[in-house]
Write a structure and sequence with these properties.
The chain is built from seven helices and eleven strands. It is an alpha+beta fold. Pfam families: pre-PUA_NIP7 (PF17833), UPF0113 (PF03657). Belongs to the NIP7 family.
Length: about 180
């Protein structure tokens, strides 16, 4: 487990800024730190970080919350495991109808007829956190249209492209 290099930190913070904007400081606070372990990017408290060297590196699976990972091509990808860490700081939110919840959780995209409501001023290709009507975070995606165009679109128009959903915990249980 080690701290991120400048290049890695730039990639991580650029991606996080797209998801939560200037709330990165709130996410980190004074007691948390971002570290790298076996290509996984983790958000770890400083207290926990002091205890980790007591465990052999081969035995340590994970410490803290996983924000994402670096791919083989050295790109940073935010994973569904970061949903509970990032959703309180979401810039843009999208709520789906109860009837469309399962559709989204099966890795399908969201069409206009599935929309319950959307936060204002969401740009095209902006990251949105998807919630059910009870404000439970379900995942995140990329908007295919801006929030102004979505309200004027017909019912079968693609609105949100699914990037990650909580159904991945079941589909990819061995990987996560």
């Amino acid at each position: 487990m080690r701290k991120l290099t400048e290049e890695e930190a730039e990639k991580v913070f650029t991606k996080l800024k797209r998801f939560i904007g200037d709330n990165i400081d709130k996410l980190l606070g004074e007691e948390n730190e971002i570290v790298l372990h076996n290509s996984k990017v983790l958000l770890v408290s400083k207290k926990m970080l002091k205890l980790c060297p007591q465990i052999k590196r081969e035995k340590l699976i994970q410490c803290g919350g996983q924000l994402g990972k670096f791919t083989k091509t050295n790109n940073f990808v935010i994973l569904i495991t970061a949903l509970h860490l990032l959703s309180p700081y979401a810039l843009h939110k999208f709520w789906v109808k109860t009837s469309a919840e399962m559709n989204f959780l099966y890795k399908n995209n969201i069409v206009r007829s599935h929309m319950h409501k959307i936060s204002e001023n969401v740009p095209t290709n902006g990251v949105v956190f998807v919630y059910n009507q009870n404000d439970t975070p379900l995942g995140f995606g990329i908007t295919a249209r801006s929030s102004e165009h979505i309200s004027q679109s017909p019912g079968n128009t693609l609105v949100v492209i699914n990037q990650a959903d909580t159904g991945e915990y079941i589909r990819d249980e061995t990987i996560l």
